[in-house]
Design a protein that fits this description.
Helix content is 51%, strand content 9%. With 376 residues, it is mostly helical. The strands form four sheets. It has a three-stranded antiparallel beta sheet with strand order 5-6-7, with no helix packed on it. Strands 1-2 form a two-stranded antiparallel ribbon. Strands 3-4 form a two-stranded antiparallel sheet. A hairpin with a 4-residue loop joins strand 8 and strand 9 (348-352). Helix 12 (304-325) crosses helix 13 (355-368). The longest helix is centred in the last third of the chain and has 22 residues, at 304-325.
Length: 376
């Protein structure tokens, strides 16, 4: 891209491959989430981010054919088998977990065991569908007596590709039907006219009527959590790619324009786009990385007159993440990109590398280097 200087795309991809290989010697087939003090903290296989490290390994394996990376990724996938039987720990993030493990493996290798795992996960995700409200329920109760049965969240847009994939490989349209109906609910209740997004919507689980909007990981119910906008941008682009409904494309574009219009000078977003002056404006590099990868997909879905707009915007974000947020040569830091914000309202993992930020950054850079086929 003119003005960004040098062949930074191939340079960035080379550094990603090198660092993933080095970091993998410690992480191996475990499940990192946030880097604290320079080391990725490992979570149980049931944690919602369990797919992102193996997904990152598959991204690099696709280019290098490094059998060690493949072995670690397959071992992560196999460990998820026990999560399936521990039913109470499964929630809407089934899509994140098995798309980047089983579906990725099946797409790359054609492995039938991975296909069966992916289809089983898709069936479990379908089991969370509320027919009255036409939404996929988000979480299970966090503590005894709590009722989360009416909650749906914008993040689930990135879980729906598992259902579209399941319909494609099985020939059964029921998975796709549920994905489409949830997407239509998102259009009606989550994406605002200006392109900003509600994080959590509570429905009456008996009638399906909207009850309230909650702030969730954003600052407030009416604020604009930046990663939520990225989930919507990317998720709606994926929905359009699978279904071809122009409403989904327009929703993706609306979220994209809101996201881009509110970026600071370095093109990496704050954790929320609508913050009072007194609230700390931490960056969220993971929101930037997710949006950038989604923008690159969007650029391939629109007409010629719009294509460069979205491609250049996505590349500009990735370039800034690479130049200004990268931790390539730091032996004291395992993360790829710095300054992610996981959950500011709860004070968790603020201003640290996040594994999903690393994944989406690598996925975006891979797209710039010609690997445009996505696991989603």
């Amino acid at each position: 891209m003119r003005g960004l200087g040098g062949d930074w795309r191939s340079e960035a991809w080379s550094k990603i491959k090198d660092k993933v290989g080095r970091t993998g010697l410690r992480i191996r087939d475990a499940f990192p989430h946030a880097s604290v003090g320079g080391s990725y903290q490992l979570e149980p296989a049931s944690w919602w981010t369990a797919g992102f490290w193996p997904g990152l390994l598959w991204l690099v394996y696709r280019d290098t054919n490094d059998e060690q990376l493949r072995h670690w990724a397959e071992s992560c996938e196999e460990q998820l088998d026990r999560v399936i039987t521990d039913y109470v720990k499964l929630d809407h993030d089934i899509g994140f977990m098995w798309t980047l493990t089983s579906v990725a493996r099946y797409r790359l290798t054609g492995d039938e065991t991975a296909k069966r795992r992916g289809l089983l996960a898709a069936n479990l995700l379908c089991g969370r569908y509320n027919t009255r409200g036409r939404y996929i329920r988000a979480w299970n109760p966090w503590q005894p007596g709590e009722d989360n049965s009416g909650l749906a969240i914008i993040d689930c847009m990135m879980n729906l590709p598992l259902l579209h994939w399941a319909s494609q490989v099985s020939g059964d349209p029921r998975y796709k039907h549920i994905a489409v109906e949830h997407t239509d609910t998102v259009l009606a209740h989550f994406i605002r006219p200006d392109g900003s997004v509600n994080h959590i919507v509570r429905f009456d689980p008996q009638t399906g009527e909207q009850a309230e909007v909650l702030g969730g990981q954003g600052y407030a119910p009416d604020s604009a959590w930046s990663r939520g906008t990225a989930w919507a941008l990317y998720g709606m682009a994926l929905a359009y790619r699978y279904v071809g409904d122009k409403r989904y494309l327009e929703a993706s574009k609306r979220a994209a324009h809101f996201f881009l219009a509110n970026l600071p000078d370095d093109h990496v977003p704050y954790w929320d786009f609508r913050l009072p002056e007194r609230v700390a404006k931490h960056r969220d590099s993971s929101a930037g990385a997710c949006a950038a990868s989604g923008l690159l997909l969007l650029s391939r879905l629109v007409g010629e007159e719009e294509r460069l707009l979205y491609r250049r915007a996505g590349e500009r974000i990735l370039w800034s993440l690479y130049r200004n947020y990268g931790a390539w040569d730091r032996e004291d830091e395992e993360g790829l990109i710095l300054h992610g914000t996981s959950h500011y309202p709860e004070g968790r993992n603020i201003d640290v590398p996040l594994i999903y930020g690393d994944y989406y950054f690598a996925e975006g850079v891979a797209q710039l280097n010609g690997y445009e086929e996505l696991f989603w």
